[in-house]
Amino acid sequence: MAAQDPYRNIAAIYDRLIEPMQSGVRRVAIGVLPPQPGWHVLDVGCGTGTGMKPYLDAGCAVAGVDMSEAMLKKATERLGDRADVRLTDGQTLPFADDQFDLVTTTMVVHEVPGDQRGAFVAEMARVAKPGGALMLIDFRFGSLRGWRGPGLRLASGIIERLSGHYSRYRTFKDTGGVPGVLASVGLDVTTEKIVAGGNVAIYLVSPS
Predict the structure, then answer these.
(1) Band (180; pLDDT cuts 50, 70, 90)
(2) Residue 32 pLDDT more than 60?
(3) Domains of the chain
(4) Where are the alpha helices (DSSP H) in 66-165?
């Protein structure tokens, strides 16, 4: 395994650490855009494959890409040959134009270097079919909601510091989050669903 794989040491416990925080958001996301049998779906930054399983169970043809060989190994253990998983950094997706009904990514855009985020999203749009959709789930920096909001905002900052991603988290915030990235490549949010006390949003985009 490549020594530079940043997730090689935590892939085995990643789901126990992260999935409890993301599972509720994933359930809401499925409700925002319910999958249809026969859809072709791509998960960019698919990790251990937890986000792909609901689409497979709904009868979709699913592909996933990730930069971590260790995480993809876990995805393959979970899904077997039901999903087409490939190793890539996401900057150049190994798929033809206009291939997917839905292209999704969860808590990945803020981790992409600031000068590469626009290209990352544009590449997602390239492989989406005309009439298809992009779904981007990531941090939101607007007003908070309910009693959970402030605590989750504080926790998010601490987690990003500990993970070594805080500088990217800050530039993501300072440049307007997902809407700012989309605007930089001429795309607009068509639907925004706010979750996690205002700390996270599910953004839908029609790329064509």
Answers:
(1) very high
(2) yes
(3) 11-205 (3.40.50.150)
(4) 69-79, 117-127, 148-163
